[in-house]
Amino acid sequence: MKPYNYEDIERRWQKNWFDSKIYESKRNDKQKFFIHFAYPGVSGYLHVGHMRGFTYCDIIARYKRMQGYNVLFPAGFHASGIPSIGFAKKVERKDPITINSLREYGLSDEEIEKLKDPYEVVKYFGNVYVEDYWKRFGFLIDYSRSMSTISPGYKKFIQWQFYKLKEKNLLVQKQHYAPFCPNCGPVAVDKSETDISTGGNAEILEFTVIKFLMDDGTILPAATLRPETIFGVTNMWVNPDVVYVKIKIMGEIWICSREAARKLNYQYDDVEIIDEEIPGTHLIGKKCRIPIVDREVPILPGIFADPEVATGIVMSVPAHAPYDYIALVETGEPIKPITIIDIPELGEKPAAKVCDELNIHSQKETEKLDEATDIVYKKEFHTGVLNDLCMEYAGMKVSSAKEEIKDRLLSSNQALTMREFSEEVICRCGEKVVIKQIPDQWFIKYSDEKLTNESIKHVEKMNIYPIEYKEELPGVLEWFDDRACIRKGSWLGTEFPFKEGWIIEPISDSTLYPIYYIISKYVNEGKLLAMDMTEKFFDYIFLGKGTAKDALWGEIRGDVLYWYPVDINLGGKEHKTVHFPVFIMNHVAILPEEMRPNGIFVHWWVTQKGKEKISKSKGGVTHIAEAAKIYGVDAMRLYYSHVGSPFVDIEWDPSTVIIYKNRLANLYSLIYNILSIDGGENKHIDRWLKSMLNRRIKNIVEAFDEYNLRVAANEIFFEMQKDINWYIKRGGKNKTILQYYVESWLKMMTPITPHIAEELWHIRYESFISNAEFPTYDEKLFSMEDEIKEDLLQGLIEDIQEILKVTKITPKRICIYTTPKWKQTVTKKIFELEGKGKLDMSNLMREILTDEDMKKKAKEISKFAGKIINEMRKIQDKQRYTIDIDETIFLKEETSYLESLFNCDIEIYPADSKDIYDPKGKSSFASPFRPAIYIE
RNA sequence: GCAGGGGUAGCCAAGUCUGGUCAACGGCGACAGACUCAAGAUCUGUUCCUGUAGAGGUUCAGGAGUUCGAAUCUCCUCCCCUGCACCA
């Protein structure tokens, strides 16, 4: 036996597979299967967590290929968008973590220098992904079709997609608000903080700015997230320490903070400061009128009114807003809060009650006040109802009144909307990021009713794993709104064909791409140039419109018809609400029905202990190549497929991976041992093994067919090993059947652990097991009788062990009493009658008592039958009880096995024979499949 | 807020759709034994409670219900996690 040197084994077989190009897919007569994973963004080195989904994809692809499908499994890179630029920027500003990781990976300073260029970043990582990750894991990806989304050909493809969307009226222009830096232009607010230095978690909030009219006609604009509380306004708050400004906006005169004026200027046209100096103190004591309710309220000093937030002016609703309540208490003004929302839990004065509970006394206790605000808001929003003070809105739920009141204020020009970040966002240049209006932003109209409905209808026909996601999808599609599809700024991608200088954003350029894998092969071979990829070309090859310009067009059209649609698009759960919906909708929008996707497979994540994201600082192995070295690729593949179902998050746990590694090493030597066994046949146990093998194959094929990868892995790597161990333990040593078993077993291991399987296969064979046919089962080889016998024996052994455990006897002799004939007859009869649906006590007794001998035992029989009938309910596999086996003969044959097991004398007696040794009268307990036992 | 997923023995994690073979797959950890100079690996057994005869008792977040029978079905409550759009 050669030692199990997994690294050598992996490298050797990978080289052999790739040298003989078994991964390349070509059109032929066989049925096709097209699978791919959502291509990864290019954002740096990946870690072991990312390999989970890729591995699932390879397992499925390999299984399908062994089942005789012509499998297409391509892969590419999603290079568009921010990530590669972000990476290049980090290199440029010498971000120490980034530079360090590159050095650690073995890059020279010159090589690092080159990565200041985002295109170099894509090139470099593209290579790392293919060579160090995918090939290193033995994936039979069709590498001849590799592609990236920033290649010239891909861009032509995306432009074609947008021509088609336009044709179908699915591109629309409307107003939009986007993050913007006054110095740098458009910026992205995202968690990776590529463009910005703080505020990656910020959300855009929509404030309603309500216009309060002062005596002199000036407007005091108060911003709120709760317009429905307008009925409870008792006063206004301005900050006495702030100097406000007077502005002209859309023909009106407003007073607001300087910061607010700046922000409004980006969201509305014609904003102009006309008076620089309105100290807050000058406003205090004046009055203004509340719209709708038309009541006059005083302006009071409130130091919590932050000039940085919205307009810097706050309307006061002390009954329902903790900040307002506390401020009112602090000013000592004799103003009574006006309660306008009925909510039993919080009583008459909700804000006061919660402030009291949290023990808040000052406007400066912002943390507690925020908590109080949150509590009141949530309760009121969900369960609150507006009361009699709210005019025609009385009795309405807060959640619906809110929208109605807001719409009324907006449409009557008594308010407008102002967008604001939930937290401060600072650009990398140091400037504050604002929200800017884009009057004519292009959108993909995913809200389109026809498109939505057709997509929902298509989902019904799809194979979606897990099923829960299939049920969720219609709701997601319904909810999916128009999506801004282009932007300006630092961003890689395809030029938008209808507006110069704008780039298509990366969600929108990654929806239809699986079809591009069909042509990327010709691009890579140099047969197809970007300049030839005209609208006519795509129309012809994808839609069959027009005529083929040349033979190549015809060939590609043939490929498209053969390979498309996609059978499985596999991706992580992060894709559920964005990528998969647009993947479906773009196919539905553009391609004919027969080319729409057949299936989606969603997998969950690998997390660090305690549900954290994997990171090196937390002790996770980041580099995939490093992990491959420590654990071995097959061990990792087995770990991914077995440690949990694909539809739960799994925790990365190095010690568990080691267990799998040991398990494989063990399996490796076990198989060598099995193959060295050279013995003759033993009819019963040989038939048993054959029966079990066929049963396992059935289970495994069924599991794989439903992509139940964990079940398949469990059967192959655990149950089958248990079976073969039992066979050997029971004295099985039939060389022919062992050989056959191992060969079938190796084939079934191949999708999950291809390297070790290939290695062991080559002990006897020259061909690739990766190209072999997956085993099939033959139900005729199921042998119920032999299985029952082994079950009987196992049950007996367990019973003896339990008795030994409880009694702590060291056995000198064990007597086993098999079932008396009559009990077997009665049991069989019961199951027979049950099968015919005629089971009842009188029927049973009538039939049994036709036998004269039985009549003598009538009383005993009825008692026993009653017990069996009662127990029978629990038994599902009833068929096996109708099979007759002679327990005595069988167990007598196995006496020597039992003797070696318990190291004492074993005596087998039929319970109904006259001449037996039974000092404790145990034999009366014997029943079918449950021999009685006496130990001394 | 909107939407989705989940809570199973010391831990991880199957089972839930299709109720009965479920004291509940598998793995880890722990304990005992074998092997070994030793360690590791491997193998055997035990691991909810009780029990000197293969049994009984109490469990699957909590509560209520349906049923001959519920981890599985229904309703309510509590707790945890995830996604939400110009980030991929």
Task: Explain the layout of strands and helices.
Blueprint: H1 6-19, E1 32-37, H2 51-66, E2 70-72, E3 76-77, H3 83-92, H4 96-104, H5 109-114, H6 118-134, E4 147-148, H7 152-167, E5 171-181, E6 185-186, E7 196-198, E8 204-214, E9 219-224, E10 235-238, E11 243-249, E12 252-256, H8 258-267, E13 271-279, H9 280-283, E14 287-289, E15 296-301, E16 314-316, H10 322-331, E17 341-342, H11 350-357, H12 366-383, E18 385-386, H13 398-411, E19 415-421, E20 426-427, E21 434-444, H14 449-461, E22 463-465, H15 467-479, E23 483-484, E24 486-487, E25 503-504, H16 516-524, H17 535-543, H18 551-563, E26 568-572, H19 579-590, E27 599-603, E28 606-607, H20 624-631, H21 633-642, E29 650-651, H22 654-676, H23 683-705, H24 709-729, H25 735-749, H26 754-761, H27 784-807, E30 813-818, H28 821-836, H29 841-848, H30 852-855, H31 858-872, H32 887-893, H33 895-902, E31 905-910, E32 932-935
Parallel strand pairs: 1-2, 1-26, 3-4, 10-15, 22-27, 26-27, 28-29, 30-31
Antiparallel strand pairs: 5-6, 5-21, 7-20, 8-9, 8-14, 8-19, 10-16, 11-12, 11-13, 14-15, 17-18, 21-23, 24-25, 30-32
Helix pairs in contact: 1-26, 3-6, 10-11, 11-12, 14-15, 14-19, 17-18, 20-21, 21-22, 22-25, 23-24, 23-25, 23-27, 25-26, 28-31
The structure holds one RNA strand of 88 nucleotides.
Q: Summary?
A:
By secondary structure, the chain is an alpha/beta fold. The protein contains 33 helices and 32 strands. It folds into 4 domains: 6-168 and 454-603, HUPs (Rossmann fold); 206-413, Alpha-Beta Complex (Isoleucyl-tRNA Synthetase, domain 2); 633-782, Isoleucyl-tRNA Synthetase, Domain 1 (Orthogonal Bundle), CATH 1.10.730.10; 800-935, no CATH class.
